[in-house]
Each structure stands twice: as C-alpha cells, then as structure tokens.
Amino acid sequence: MTVVISLAVLVFLVVAAVWPDLIAPGDPLAIHPLDAFQPPSAQHLFGTDESGRDIFTRVIHGTRASLLIGVTATAIGIGLGLIFGLLAGLGPRWLDFGTTRLLEVMFAFPGLLLALLFIVIYGPGIVTSTIAVGLSTAPGYARLIRSQTLQVRDAPYLEAALVLGRGSVFRLTRHLLPNVAGTLFVIATLGVGQSIVWASALSYLGLGAVPPSPEWGAMLSAGRTYITSFWWMTFFPGLFIVLSAAAATLLGRGLQQRKRSS
Amino acid sequence: MSGTEGTKGAHELVPISPGSPSAAGPQHATPLLDVRNLMVRFGRGMPVVNDISFTIAPGETFGLVGESGSGKSVTSRALLGLTGSNAHVAATRLTLAAAAADGVLDLRQLSARAWRGVRGARVGYVPQAALVGLDPLRPVGREIGDALRLHTKLSPVERRAEVSELLAAAGVPEPELRAVQRPYELSGGLRQRVLIAAAIALRPSLLIADEPTTALDASVQAGILNLLERLRQNGTAILLISHDLSVVSRLASRVAVMQHGAIVETGPTARVLDAPQHPYTRQLVAAVPTNRPRGTSLAPQSIAAAPAESPTPAPSPSPSPATAAAPGESAADAELSGPTPAEPPSPAATAAPGESAGPAEAVAPAASPTPAAAGSAAGAGSAAGAAVVLRAHGLSRWFGDRAAVDDVSFTLERGRTLGLVGESGSGKTTVARLVLALTAPDKGDVELLGQPWSALPERERRPNRRRIGAIYQDALSSFDPRLTVGQILSDAASGGRSSRTDVSALLHQVGLSADVAAQRPRFLSGGQQQRVAIARALAPRPDVLICDEPVSSLDVSVQARILDLLDALQRELGVAYLFITHDLGVARHMSDDLLVMRAGRIVESGPTESVFADPREPYTRELLAAAPQLSRLAEPARSR
Amino acid sequence: MGSAGSGKSGTVSGSGGNVNTVSYVSDALDVHEHPQTWLARNAPLLRWLALRLLGVVFVLWAVSTITFFAIRLIPGDPAEAILGGPGSQASADSLAAARAEYGLDQPIGIQYLSFLGRLAVGNLGQSYALHQSVASVIGENLISTLTLALAALILAVVIALGLAAWSTRGGRAAAAIGSTLEVVGAAVPHFWLAILAILLFSTTLGWLPPVSVAGPAGLVLPALVLAIPLAGFLGQVMREGLLDALSSPYALSARARGESESGVFWRHALKAAAIPAIGLTGWAFGSLISGAVVVETIFARPGLGRSLLAAVQGRDVPLVVGIVIVVALVYMLVTTATDLAERIIDPRVGRRPDARGSAPRRNTRRARTHAHKDASRSRTHTEIEP
C-alpha cells in the first residue's frame, strides 16, 4: 500500500522533471510585478512570489534540478562508496585496514561538515554543492558496501562454489558482485531522499543553487525574508522536498521488506 | 549439590520406567488437564489445530509427538492462552484442576488478568528455543526471580535465596555465581536448566515442555530428560512436546501423535511404539534409523525389496532412487515432485568407466539386510583391497592454543561409507573442512585418489575439485539466493554449459521433477533443498562426498527419505561417503566403518557393528548410553 | 524401576542408577571461568577503551592534516583573504605583512609542523574575519551549541520512544500512523520545519519568540526543530528493536511466566530497543551539529553552526579549520562514550565468538526456523503494518 502511494508520487515527480510543461505550462521565470505576493487561488495554485512569478509553475519546473541533484549526489556517493567498500571487502588485509582507517577519518566529519569544507575550497554553486553532498555521504555507503561484501564473501554459497572447483573470477562475477549489487538499489532509493534534503539545505544556506533558479532549496531561501507575511512562498517548495524525500524513503523501505520476506 | 560430584556419572542414565504406577493413565479420576475438541485458527485461515482431545493426570508425563507444522506448538500456546489476538481458540472443554478442592478452572473463560495468575504459577512452560529463551541482557537469576516477584510477596532478599535453591534443584552448579551471569555466559544445557528452574519456581502442577532438548548434545539432553523425570516423580505432571520419538519414549507414559493439526493416534507409549495402528505412526516409527541395519530402507516403499543393481556402464532400467523417494515425501515435496517416470536411465548409471572399478562391495550391503551379513560383506570388501579414494594422515589443526583436530588419520575406500560421530565442538566439522581443503592442516596431510591433495596450492587443486563434493546441514544457505535450481545445477555440471536435459536428469536422479528447475531454492521444502544440494554435489560425478550433518535439521520422515536416497545413490554410483553426524542412530544406519571423535581426537574406530556391539573406550560407551533410543522401549523385556 | 533394557545398544545399567543423581558436569565444563576482581573482569573493556582513545588521537591528527592540506587547494592568495578578499585591493606591503603575521611566507613543511605544534597546545590560530583567536570564538559558542544539541537529543529520544511504544502496542492503525510519521519526520528538512514552527508558534499563536533569545524560552523552538527529524530516524530503529524484542522467544517465556504486556515492555523490550538507538547516538550527534548550522542561522541563535556558516561564506579558513577539528573531536568522544555504553549494557558486543563458547552448530537451523516461526506468529499478535 505505502509502496503504491510512494511509487505514484515518484512517477508524478519524474513526469514533472522530464516534461514539466505537461503539468505546468508556463515560464517559471516570467515576471509579472503586478501579480506579486498573490496568495494561493484557482489561478495561482501555490500563489506568487515577490516578482509575481507563479510558484506552482516554479515548483514543478524546479523538480528536474532538485531530483537531478539528489540522484547525482547519490550516484557520486555510491560510486565512491563502491570503490572503497569493494577495495576493503575484497582486497588484502592491509588494504582493508587502510581503507577502514580512512573511512574512520572521513566519519569524523559528521553530516554536512565535509560538504561545508568542500564548499570552502571550491566555492559555492550547484555543481560543488552536489559533489559536496555526494562526498559526505560516501563514507556511509562505503561502510555499508564493505560489510555487505564481507557478508557475501563469507557466505556458505561462495564456499560451495569453491568446493565445486570454481575459480575466483567465476565466484566474483557470478556470485559476489551480483549479490552485492542487489542490495545497492534499495540503498540508493533510501539515499536519494536524504540527498535531496541535504542539497536543498545547502541551497537554502546560499551555498548551492542560487535564486532565481527554480530549485526548491533556492526558492525557500528566496522566500525566507517574507516568512511571516507570505507563507506560501516557502511552504510549497518545502512540501515538495518532504514529499519526494518521504516517497523515496518509503519506497526503499518497502523494497527492503519485500527482499527480506521473500 | 557440588560441581565436583562424580565426573564419571555425568552421562549416566537414570533408569526410567514410563509404566511406573504413578503414571496411572487415562483412567485417573479427575484429570489435571482436560482438553476436548480443541480448535485453533489464525485469522480466517484453516484450523492449525483441529478438534484434538486429550487428558493429563496429576503426576503423569504425556507426550505429544509431531513433525514441524503438525500444530503441536500451537497446542501448547493455546493451553497457556498465548496464541495471540488474531487467533480463534475453541473447545468444548478446556479445564485445569484447581489446587484446592474447589473444582476445576475453565481456561476458556479466563480474563487476561486471571490468565497471568495461571501462567507460571499453575502451569509452567519450558520453551523450545533453549538458546534464545532467556533475555540476553539480564542476569539469568532475574528471570527466575521474576516468576517469584509476579506470584509471591517475597522480599528481594528472600527471592534471591529462593532463586539459588531453584537453580540448585534444577541441577545448576554454583547457583549463586550462575544467577548473576547472563545467558551467553552459560552453555546450552545450563540455559535449559535455568528455564526449567524458572518454570518450576511456583511448583506448578503442570509443566509444558516444548522441545526441551532440541539443539542440545546427546549427553546434555540425557541430563535434561533425567531432570524432567525427577520433577515428575515429585508430582509434577508434564506435557512433553517433541518431534523426536525417542525423547518422548524415554519419559512419557502415554503419547499422542499429531499430523496436520489432528491427533491421529493416542495410547500408552509402549503400545503405540510396538504396535502402531495409524499409517503415519508406523511411518514415523519406521523412519527412526536407530538399530536399522545398513542398507535397509527407512521410508515406506522399501528399496531393499527391489533387486539390487550394480552400476554397469550399460544403460539399464535401474530402479532409480527417484521411484523410492518420491512418493509420500512431505506434502509440499509430493506436490512438486509429482509422478516420476522410471524408464529414463539415470545419467549416473552411465557413469565414467572409472566408477565401475569397485562395484562389488557396493552391491553386497544392499543384498544383505542383516547387520551381520553387512559387516562381513564390508570385511570382504576391505580384504579385496578396494581402491582407497581418501586418506587422511596425522591431521592436526589448532585454533589459538586449542587443538580443534589432533592427529586424525583414516582411509575411505570407493563405494563405502565412513561415519564420523561426536558431540558439538568435537572437531567433526573442522575435519570436513580439512578434507575439503578449505582449511589448511597445521600438521599431516590429505590424499585424494592416491594423489597429494591438502599439500597442493589451490590452483593445482582446482582441476581435481570435482572429484570431491560436499553437502551441508543448512542446504539453503549453500545456494546463491539469486539463482534458480536450474541455474545452480547447470553451474555445477560442466561449468554452466550443460543443457536443460542434463538438469532434469540430475533432478530426476534425486527424485525431483523437472519443473523444480525454475524454482528458487528458498521456496522448496527442507527435504527438497537437501535433494537439490545432493544433485549439485553429484553433478560433477565425484568419487567422494563429504556429508556434514546432512539430515540434522530435517523432520524424521524426511530424514528417512534423504538417507534412503543417499544409500541408493551410493549403490548406483559407487561414490564414497564421509558421513559426519552427531546422531549415533543415523551413523549406525549409514556407515560401514565408524570413527568416534572427542575433543579433536579419534577415540575409537572400527567396523560400525563391532563398535556398537563392543565399545572399547569409556567415552564411546557414555555416548551410546546417552543417546535416546526407541529400541530400548520396544524390547520385550520392558513390558511388565 | 528395573534396568530398562540392556545388550548391544549399550545402556549403562546398575552403576549408580539413582534418580536423584543429577548429571550436570558436562554442562559445567562448557562454562567460562570467571575471575573475581573488578580489574581482571573488565580487562578486555579497559584494553578496548585504551585502544579506542589512541584511535581518537590518530583520527584527530589525520583530520587536522587533511584539513590543513585541503585548504591549500583554495585558489588565490590567502593573504588577500585575510585582508578582506580579492576585492580589497590591498597593497603589496600590507599583503607581505599579513603573510609574515600568519606565517604564510614559510615553506609548507614548516607551516604544517608549526600548525601541529600550535594544535597540540590548543592554539587554533587567528580568525581572518573576526580578528580574534579561533579558540576564543569557539569557546564563546561551544556551550550554546552543545546545550542545543543535548536538548534536541533528549527531546528526540523521548518523542521517538513514545511514538515507537505507542505504535507497537496500539494495534494496526497505530502501527501504520506511527511508521508513516517516522518516515515523514525523517524526511522533513530542518529549515522548512523551522519556518513552519515560526509560523505556527510565533506568528499565529505568539507563544514563543521567532528569534532565539537567552534562556529556556529561546531554546524550545530550535531544539524541537532539530529533534523532529532525528526522532523520525531513531523511532524507526527503536520500533524495529521493540518489535523484535516483543516477538522474541524470551518475551514468550516471560509471558508464560505470568508477566503482563507492560511488564514485558518495560523489563525486556525497552532495553533491547535502546541498544541500537544508543549505537546511533554518535551519528545523531553529528547530524545535530549539521542541523545546528541551519537552525542557528534561522533562529539567529549564537553558536558554532552559525559561526561555521559565516566562516564558510567569508572563507575564514582558520575558523573553519578550528571548528571542524573541535567538532570532530567532540564527535569522536561522543561516539566512544556511546560505544562504551553499548558494551556495558550488552557485554556480547565486540566479543569474538571463540570456538569454545559458541552455540552448538548442529540443529541451529531447526532452532532458527522454530524461532522464526515464533516471531512471525507473534508478529501477527502485535499487529504490525500490513
């Protein structure tokens, strides 16, 4: 049930990201100063902002950027995590030791700290903030993939393949990698939600995408000044962040449970 | 009782006579527990327990026997009111005799609060999962103290004293020290004793023991059964629930056999075991391998009756093991395997010429149903100088400063079975790993087919790995969860290039139908999973098969079929088995020769029948004595 | 009772067939020896702790080194940053003076060593922007942020536990509502929550100040905003732990002993659910610090997070480095403390399963399948989500 609802939400978001004009035909950047600060109405579903831009249109058109940032950041995180995790899980003992120590050091920069450090070095912007989020999630993925790799490596079925006279290449490609990869999809789904939240937080702090770009975090940031008088400017972009993150998480958990029970 | 008391008495059996007068049987005036037409159903499903009735007299031990899924554990939950909120429990009568003379307690009408007054105080419960039945985060004494706290007004200090006494009464040495330890610091046997101490804290008149000895070593098991018997003699009635006929036969004066949620047969234990009426009971009794000669069939359709076939290279209409094994496998098995045609010659029958080298001794045991003949045939086989396929020489392996395997030597000849028995921790599995060259020996070596084996580097060993296979206790975890049975088998046979017909021939060989190939192993029953494991292990046509506890987690009737299958395959293919088991009955039934292992050393070895008839080592005698057996009850001397 | 059976089956009869002879010696042999002194008993724990603290020192050194060299990657002349960024058009003289003041004219190796030397005595250098020692900036802000984080942590644990307890015991609907709230809670970004909170409690209701003021009233909204997403995460973990414990075989034995449902909950399940939650506390603290960056900015509350953001925006390198190092240190100390707590509550953690003490391997599958059956059956009893 929850899986169906979250899938529906995600499908809607993907449509909005690929063909935004299907849902909200109109220019997200078109300025109508006379229509500024309109509350939500039939004409402006989510109201308008300080320049009279339609917030519904902007939110829908912002889906692409926000989702893309989330997916890219997750891909970077999982990619790095995969490299380190497999090195540690499959490499010789010293490599595992070294990689594990490195991960411990990375873990000592909790949460956004690593991202902020990265932004200090390379300056704010949509690209750096995406890489920064990917970088700061990488240690977590690496640890997960390492333990998953170790678990599969020591699984009785790998030993059974050895007893049957299988070489290491066969065991790696036929059994180990596919079984590690099988869990990655779930991890990725769970991760996209968090990446979207983190990336939008960076945008909100003015370190990621910048207004007037219709990215959700940036829109929130722009609406910050008007919180008390014009709530809709911040409410709706935020709602979409919550919606996409929650849907991704619910889908991931649903997949996880299905995997566990089957 | 002190911990130093009589080490030699550790495994001694207390003579138990289930027919003793205190167990008066069903005629007792007022039964302690009276169950009539009990039905339990979950949600809108089919009844899990259907219309069962039995009574238990005060001070009687009543056995409830059934295989997994028979509904015996649900029955015990129903008697405790713990079936859960979505269960429907109905009965025409469900009463417990009250302690005082004020009549009986109707368990059907108890409030939640009244139930709590019954549980623990009037009915004690010893759960089936001895190893996980105690809260891992609390000292075990607290668990016992909880029972006292809930039902008495004792002060904490008094409770602590009482806990020590209870632990001592349950046979736990150094009770004050044990009481403050946590479960992981205790052995399985001690944990079970702690659970029993908690169950008897309030001197309940009825004790429900649900699989109290499952997963315990035979000697520990004997100790627990003795303790239960002592409780019964002190006046506690016991409902003993077990899948294991031999356990029940040791204690129960009367027994009920459950199948598919119903009681199919009930009566005095001796009568039920000696002269079972219901076909299912007969099947269960027959499936117990203890004292069943080598080569005889355990499952209903006797393969021994069929003419023995020698594995000639020519295709012959050999009675494929499939025909013997397929009918009547547990319900799920039967559905899937379906009728298997007997005419296609098993691919293994047309085996490599090398395998027909020593067919003579493979035939002999099959043709001779008596143990004596089997023994002599075995003797003749070795005298003929049959090819040695596996030789271990002075194997040793240390883990830290402890020798897991210490100077183990043996030889295994083509087409024969070498049994390896021992309790947990004796080093059996390490021997298997050494022989499979998964672990390198610290000393000694293994030769396979007369060639160096353990001494080679893995790369040089690999081409010959197909000569030695293995099956394990947990078949399911030895399969890649992503692959179907068909993929698993074709991977095993000739490196993934085998065709679909090869796969179905392999399946047919182990008594499974071809459509199993599309399934994933986790959707198969335990017996079917082990059959797939056997098919996979035999696919590369090995000369040796290492069987590490292959039937330990299977129900007894499924176990019987798997053992029959292994027997038939050995005759057909001439493959040699190293058969590792903790179960002496299984070992005796399966092996030509026997090794007894203790603390990493072989303490006794020789032809199986002579080891059983005349055990020389004290340890072997202890082991034999501790193993619960059906036969002892079935012997005429017992009935008075 | 006579000798029950004899002959080749090998029954030992006649030798001490006393019913009251309890045979437990074989059990007792399996049990670990237990040294009695406190020091001896806790030796493994102390050894672990010593190693762990050494590890903290190592990681701290690595963190400092990485940050030191990472900031060298920043394009441009650090001296310009000191003097107010590239737009300041500082003279060559003042640039040279700034370089000399901050030691930037030395070779990189010397700079690194003197950086480490200063770090060892707690000197984190001078902030470019604030013209104040980094240590004093951190000193002024650390307490405020730690107070906020601690308040949020306590609040999050209380919310998560309450929600988990209610949803595992309140039937099907409660389970569905509880798990949805947890997921949504975990997905809500701090800044959006902060905005909603300000709208609701300050603008509409007027109960609490929209800007953090000194005193407890100013702490309520920021702590709540930080706590809710964390409570969502902790709640998910605690709920799994509670469900596992409530459906475990030991909970069944407790019920069969006459324990009530609330007795099972308080005596058995709570502790079991607390362990994974404690394990997460270190991570939670880290996420609270990153959350503090956002929350302190929105509520204009002085603290490390806001200082860090300002330093990042102004590229105040020494301040960023100083805060990163201090946060890493606090984070590692918190993680060490929670790991220690975990080990004290559950001594099995980190104990290598030696061959001797491990459970018998055979029949474990049977035991496991039975246990699983128990679990699935009781799960229907506790009514988890469909």
TrEMBL record, chain B:
Residues 17-26, 321-331, 348-378 have a biased composition (Low complexity). It holds the Pfam family ABC_tran. Keywords: ATP-binding, Nucleotide-binding, Transport. It comes from the Bacteria. Residues 1-28, 288-378 are annotated as: Disordered. Residues 310-320 have a biased composition (Pro residues). Residues 33-285, 390-624 form the ABC transporter domain. The keyword Magnesium does not apply. One of its GO terms (biological process) is peptide transport. The keyword Transport applies. Signal peptide: none annotated. GO terms for molecular function: ATP binding; ATP hydrolysis activity. Belongs to the ABC transporter superfamily. This is ABC transporter ATP-binding protein.
UniProtKB/TrEMBL annotation, chain C:
Residues 372-386 have a biased composition (Basic and acidic residues). It is found in: Cell membrane. One of its GO terms (molecular function) is dipeptide transmembrane transporter activity. One of its GO terms (cellular component) is plasma membrane. The keyword ATP-binding does not apply. Keywords: Cell membrane, Membrane, Transmembrane, Transmembrane helix, Transport. The chain crosses the membrane at residues 49-71, 142-166, 173-201, 213-234, 277-299, 319-341. Residues 362-371 have a biased composition (Basic residues). It is a multi-pass membrane protein. Its main location: membrane. It holds the Pfam family BPD_transp_1_N. Residues 351-386 are annotated as: Disordered. InterPro entries: BPD_transp_1_N, MetI-like, MetI-like_sf. Belongs to the binding-protein-dependent transport system permease family. This is ABC transporter permease. It comes from Subtercola lobariae. The lineage of its organism: Bacteria, Bacillati, Actinomycetota, Actinomycetes, Micrococcales.
